Structures are given as C-alpha cells and as structure tokens.
Amino acid sequence: MNTQNHLRNLQYQTILERAKHPQNQGKTNPIHQQQLGNNPICGDRIELTIKFNQTNQIIEDIKFQGKGCALTIASADLMAETLSGKTVEEALEIIEKFRQMLKGEISLLDNLPKLNIFQGVSQFPIRIKCVLLSWHALKAALK
Ligand code: FES
C-alpha cells in the first residue's frame, strides 16, 4: 500500500471508529435551540440541540441524535466536539473552512487536525452531503 492509500485507510478507520462510538449523542440541557438536518434522498436525519451562554454569543454545548451513515454520524460527533465552546462567529468561520476543505478548495485545516480525516471525501462529491448534513443544520440554527 502506498503512503497515500495508507493514510486514506487510516482516516477511514478513524471515521468508522467514531461512528461506532460517538461521544456527543443526546440532547443538551437545557435546549436553547434545535434544528433538524435531513437528507431526503437516503433518509438520514440528524437532530441537533444547542445550549448557549447567557448572552447567546458562546455555544456552550451541542448534542445530536438521529440516524445516518458512518460519515454522517462521525461528522456530527466531531462537529459537536469541535464547535462546543466556540463563539457563534468562530463557529460560522470554521463551518465555512470545513466546507471549503471538503470541496477541495483548500487543503488541510492546520488548527483543527481532527477534522482532516474527512479530507479524502473531497474526491467523492456524493458523500460530501453526508459529511455536511449536521454542519448545514448548525449553520441554519446559528443564522
Ligand atoms: Fe445519507 Fe450519508 S448516506 S447522508
């Protein structure tokens, strides 16, 4: 296996592992906002709940529940982990950078290395939707 394939394989294993053992499933307490993300083509559905700080400027917690393919679940879980604790403005910036990486417009996210496991998906446009399902839902909730 060449280095490139080896790296892809490692990324794929990490995604599967995340999908099997997500760490951010459930609902926030309290729920300040909720948003549904759904892909009518395959039936995948993710329901996000969000808890903000008192001024509504910081996302204190994000949880998700629902069903989806391994990419959808792993991505929702990493999205919740990455964006909890961020300001709304920072979160929107990261969502945009992540989208650009998936579309192949930028290469890697140096300051968010965990998200780079999805970089290989940029070669499979049909799967980009899976990865972005929860991210689009969060963006809709924040706007
Ligand atoms: Fe439905 Fe992945 S197969 S979003």
Explain what the structure shows.
With 143 residues, this protein is of the alpha+beta class. The protein has a single domain, classed as Sufe protein. Chain: A, CATH 3.90.1010.10. 45% of the residues lie in helices and 17% in strands. The chain is built from four helices and three strands. The model has no long low-confidence stretch (mean pLDDT 94). Bound molecules: FE2/S2 (inorganic) cluster (FES). The site of FE2/S2 (inorganic) cluster has 10 residues, from helix 2 and helix 4.
Please give the radius of gyration in angstroms: 15 Å
Secondary-structure class: alpha+beta
Which sheet architecture does the biggest sheet show?
3 strands, antiparallel
Order of helices and strands: HEEEHHH
Question: Would you give the CATH topology?
Answer: Sufe protein. Chain: A
Dominant shape: globular
Task: Describe the secondary-structure layout.
Blueprint lengths: L2 H18 L12 E7 L4 E9 L6 E9 L2 H14 L4 H15 L22 H18 L1
Antiparallel strand pairs: 1-2, 2-3
Bound molecules: FE2/S2 (inorganic) cluster.
Task: Put the structure in a nutshell.
By secondary structure, this protein is of the alpha+beta class. It is built from 4 helices and 3 strands, in the order αβββααα.
